[in-house]
Design goal:
Length: about 220
């Protein structure tokens, strides 16, 4: 496994559409200062070239902060930019293929919406799972809600850490306590805030309360 459980504690997923007058690098740097433990570059409206260039700019920011940089979907961009890994969805490249292309030492994460998908992703070599949408999703309009009981089943069934995603905010995240997750993945709860560092600091305390931050 190429990612520690504690590195999933507070998983920041980028979305430049939330930014107001600041660069993506500045926003990510503020998020890391606040306590984000991993960054996923997820920019759905970017071309491959734009995504690769953005990843190249973010790589030193994440390295300086000691957090992994994961690229959403685009394995080639991850390879070209020297990112730490990739996250693939159910409609994207298979986990096994991503693993084959990236090699044994890079991080491969996968989305899973039920126990069966989770077990298959782990069988194919996923290092962690992103599971949701636990509270619906503002960024994926067609995302179905993942019941808490199914999230518990996923966490109990797999040997890799699980991050919950989908509509998570400071106001609702405590509802995820007791599910077995390693952490929470957030988009607007970080990148939609004016003071990102302060917002992340509050979320970090909540994530530690929910999941604990000392697992390996």
């Amino acid at each position: 496994m190429n990612i520690r459980r504690d590195e999933l504690l507070l998983y920041g997923v980028t979305d430049r559409s939330w930014l107001k007058g600041e660069s993506l690098e500045e926003a990510v740097e503020a998020a890391i200062k606040g306590g984000v433990t991993v960054i996923q570059l997820r920019e759905k409206n970017c071309s491959h070239e734009e995504l690769t260039e953005a990843a190249r700019r973010l790589r030193p920011v994440c390295a300086a902060g000691g957090v992994p940089l994961i690229i959403n979907d685009d394995v080639q961009a991850a390879l070209e930019a020297g990112a730490d890994g990739v996250h693939v969805g159910q409609e994207d490249m298979a986990v096994a293929e991503a693993r084959k292309l990236l090699g044994p030492d890079k991080i491969v994460g996968a989305s899973a919406h039920n126990r069966e998908e989770a077990l298959e992703a782990v069988r194919q070599g996923a290092d962690y799972l992103g599971c949701g949408a636990v509270f619906g999703s503002a960024t994926k309009k067609d995302a179905s809600v993942l019941p808490m009981e199914e999230l518990k089943k996923i966490c109990a069934a797999v040997s890799v850490p699980v991050a919950a995603i989908g509509g998570i905010s400071e106001e609702n995240c405590r509802e995820l306590a007791g599910t077995g997750i390693a952490g929470i993945a957030v988009i607007s709860a970080v990148f939609g805030k004016e003071d990102k560092e302060a917002a992340v600091a509050r979320l970090r305390r909540l994530a530690e309360e929910i999941a604990g931050g000392d697992g390996e």
